[in-house]
Specification:
By secondary structure, this protein is mostly helical. The protein is built from 17 helices and no strands. The chain has a single domain, classed as Up-down Bundle (Na+/H+ antiporter like fold). It is globular, with a radius of gyration of 22 Å. 49% of the residues are buried.
């Protein structure tokens, strides 16, 4: 209690929030991200300096699992609301290939590295692969779609990948635990394939999609027909997240995929009502900000779906930002509680510079994606809150030997921290260059009468 009431807490928290509010426009022009500053704040309030945060991933895994879990499910629901393309669209091929093929290759390469170089048992090496294979939907906002009308393929692919693989990494985590004797895999791995892979993935997507569709339709019916269920849309969003997540967990499926599917379902309802190419993008992104009475917009037969999706997206984006602040500060503070070895740093560099690019090249082979975009996808495999969740999940729900748990914590926190630094420093200049290349490609295409694709 003394730690919580320490006035330094309020000074640090208040100063950080005010600074970020004042400097947000400046940060967009500088070669760094807000997460990089939060990491520095975390290091300052951790045991190494002020001592305001005394958390360890190996000792406080239950609390950390809960905090990261909440941050990830909010972010995944937000990602679902942002991705407006129908599921039959060819644009989904990129994120699906990255979340399935590239992530599988990433797990394999990390496992091989873990056994051959890091000296980990096979199960621990596979577990490390499952923990670090998914890219992050929380920290990757600078390379994700700006909103539901953003039609840029690179941003769409990275957003969809981060949302999908945060759930599809679960089977690999369970496989690693199974190889350590801490989870039932069945004869020849048949139970793992049937339950952890097929049922867990498909069941989670089906439950979340069903919850989002049914609740979204019910709300719109009540509003359009009876002018009921108005106001408190924020509660509706939180309720839908909790229902879809809880239903998926109760059914033994993956809640992360369920929450993402719920967001997609709400956006799909809007898409069906508004059309693939809305005449007024404001009807999709900001239907509730016009000069009209919000209740009139919320009950309008044509605009009600766009209003619902727009309000839910705006609220959840704010929650996502708050979760990012809290969790990155904790990551910065916890760096002082694990061993930061040169081996862990070298492993992180290998993941960013070799394993991620190889996995992307394999996953996108034959896709026809321009080399420039493949290169950007390969670089922006940002690791973050999702990996911290899987680490604390494994520590909280499996009786991992203490040396293995401590070693995994060292590798994961080092990798996440370095990802925040190297990707945070590079995202602004690289994305500026990418946008410049896109503009030049568009001008060339317009002059030549050919499709605009960067080389």
């Amino acid at each position: 209690m003394d730690q919580i009431t320490d006035p330094r807490w309020f000074l640090v928290a208040g100063g950080t929030l005010v600074l970020m509010a004042l400097a947000s426009s400046v940060l967009r022009r500088l070669p760094l991200t807000a997460s990089l500053l939060y990491l520095g704040v975390g290091a300052a309030v951790g045991p190494a300096w002020l001592g305001l945060v005394q958390l360890s991933p190996t000792e406080d895994e239950g609390l950390l699992e809960l905090l990261t879990e909440l941050a990830v499910i909010v972010s995944l629901f937000t990602a679902g609301l942002k991705l407006r393309d129908p599921l039959v669209s060819g644009r989904w091929r990129l994120p699906v290939r990255l979340a399935v093929v590239s992530m599988t290759v990433t797990v394999l390469l990390i496992a091989l590295t873990g056994v051959a170089w890091l000296g980990l048992p096979l199960g621990a090496a596979v577990l490390l692969g499952g923990i670090l294979a998914p890219t992050d939907p929380v920290l990757a906002s600078d390379v994700q779609v700006v909103g539901p009308t953003d039609s840029e393929d690179l941003r769409f692919g990275l957003t969809g990948e981060a949302a999908l693989n945060d759930g599809s990494a679960f089977p690999f985590v369970m496989l690693g635990l199974g190889l350590l004797g801490l989870h039932e895999l069945g004869d020849g791995g048949l139970r793992w394939i049937a339950v952890d892979v097929v049922y867990g993935v498909l069941g989670g997507l089906a439950i979340g999609g069903g919850c989002g569709f049914l609740i979204g339709r019910l709300v719109l019916y009540l509003r359009r027909t009876h002018r009921e269920a108005l106001g408190l849309d924020e509660f509706l969003g939180l309720g839908l997240i909790a229902l879809s997540y809880g239903a998926a967990l109760a059914a033994g499926t993956y809640g992360f995929l369920s929450v993402f599917a719920a967001g997609l379902a709400v956006r799909w309802i809007e898409l069906q009502a508004t059309g693939r190419e809305p005449v007024d993008p404001q009807a999709v992104e900001s239907a509730h900000r016009g000069g009209e009475d919000p209740m009139d917009v919320a009950t309008d037969p044509e605009r009600a779906p766009a209003y619902l999706a727009s309000v839910l997206l705006e609220f959840n984006e704010k929650l996502e930002r708050l979760g990012e602040i809290a969790l990155v500060v904790l990551i910065g503070a916890m760096l002082a509680t694990v061993e930061l070895s040169w081996q862990a740093i070298g492993f992180a560099v290998l993941l960013f510079a070799v394993i991620r690019p190889l996995s992307v090249i394999v996953g996108l082979a034959g896709s026809g994606l321009p080399r420039l975009q493949v290169g950007f996808v390969a670089w922006f495999g940002i690791r973050g809150i999702g990996s911290l969740f899987y680490l604390t999940f494994a520590l909280a729900h499996a009786d991992l030997p203490t040396p293995i748990g401590a070693e995994l914590a060292s590798f994961v926190l080092t990798t996440v921290a370095l990802s925040i630094v190297v990707h945070g420093v590079s995202v602004t200049p690289l994305m500026d260059r990418y946008e410049g290349w896109r503009r030049r490609a568009s001008r060339r295409a317009a002059a030549e009468g050919s499709p605009a694709t960067p080389d």
